[in-house]
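Trying the structure run again after the queue cleared.
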Amino acid sequence: MKKLSHILGNVVLLFTALLCILPFVYMILMSLKSTLNAYDFSFTLSNLTFAHYQNILSGGTIGRYFLNSVIVAFAGVALTLFTSCTAGFAFAKLKFKGNNKIFLLLILTMMVPSEVILVPLYIVVRGMGWVNTFKALILPLPTAFGVFIMRQAILGIPDELLESARIDGASNLKILWSVILPLVKSAMLTLSIFTFIGAWNNFTWPLIITTNDTMRTLPLALTTMKAQYDVDVGLSMACAVITFLPPFIFYLLLQSKFEAGVALNGLKG
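Done. Tokens:
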């Protein structure tokens, strides 16, 4: 009976995994076809072509879009880690007046939908003259979510370690860099994954704040392709594949390190 339930469980998991993978397989296969019909499921080796990828990559704008996305995503990860780690350390280990109240107000901002602040944010950015700049694309990326993750991770570090470092003459910055950050690598990797994927796939804000093609990011390329060419499902899917692969590869690379960090922390505990 247990063996039968185990087999049924594996079948259900396999079926669920296939359902999750199916859209990505469809996207890749359709990108290798020249068709205007999204329901054309006939695939033969003679019909497969890389013409769509050649068409996209031969354009002068797609390379610039890709470079902008890389700059925004990696700079967003670096900025988010810096602000989240420093703020999380302050809220978790430093005692100052209004600590919990300020943190509560910060967490309450997570309840506000991002669409609500688009207009005020645009007015502020435009007033500072940052339209069509990397500053406008990168600076709004850090959120209270990252501070919350890092604060919760740093709270689990014993205060005795920090006191020992202070007795040795270490400053707060030295304690953060040498003592705390090595112990919260798994949380930092998790935050990096979320931030990179969010920054890479961000569509609404780059669409609003950029009017120049030289500053647009890769997710906007799909809209550009639809505007420049006739509706071609294969071309749209090829653009979607190019947009999808970088964050997927980034996730795969950090996922293994994230699991190793979790296992290491478990052994230390």
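Residues 233-268 form the longest helix (36 residues). Worth checking whether this holds up in the mutant runs.
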